[in-house]
Model the fold of this input.
Amino acid sequence: MGEPRGVAVGEYLSARRETGHKLLGPYVTGQLRADWLDVMSVYVESGADVIEVGIPFSDPVMDGTTIQAASSAALARGATPLGILADLATVEWPIPVVVMTYYNLVLHVGLDRFAAETAAAGVRGIILPDVPIEELGPWWAAADLHGIATVGLVGPVTPDDRLARVCDAASGFVYGVNLMGVTGERSDVSTDSAVLARRIRAATDLPTLMGFGIATPEQAAAVAAEADGVIVASAIMRRLLEGSSVDEAGAFVADLRKAIDQVN
Done:
């Protein structure tokens, strides 16, 4: 097998972090709209360091109402895992792209085929929120073969011993879940986020990105103060679902970028 397409997640994000750069990861639901690849392109132009692409599933147990609505809209347009990957393959992305999906879809396609198609699309990372590390062995084998990082997820109630195990097993970056519950904008991001970010950074050298609940640039800056960066999803998807243009989505991402750039 030749050199994988796409930008390696961990190496790129670590290099950006080493320059003192806070990391920004905006999200988009794959095939949400006809211009969804243009949305990704404007994320790049607006200062994103990594893009998370959601592959929609009919039973998204970790997602709140906004991402559920985005998934439903994409599915109504005929979105499929392989179709989303085929779309992604049409662009050479200058920053890492990771996909987030549920294991049912991966199993349905087949572990090796899904990993191979993901790699062929230039996607170098994946988030599988519904699979405990005890059950990831078969996926890791396929992912490692094709050069795909498997992001680790930990939350506020993850005990120290398990947090260390997840961090040790993770690749690319560690995703810290700011709060208990499902995705969605919140009026306040719990102080648990800062505590969790410090715990993760003490356990691993991988970049630590925090997500869930971030609704405003000010919240993004507050969360980024203790972490290496942030992932923002529902706040952007709500705007797109309400009809915001590509440029308007880019302007919001640029505001997030400006806010976290002011964090020391």
In short: Residues 180-187 have pLDDT under 50 and may be disordered.
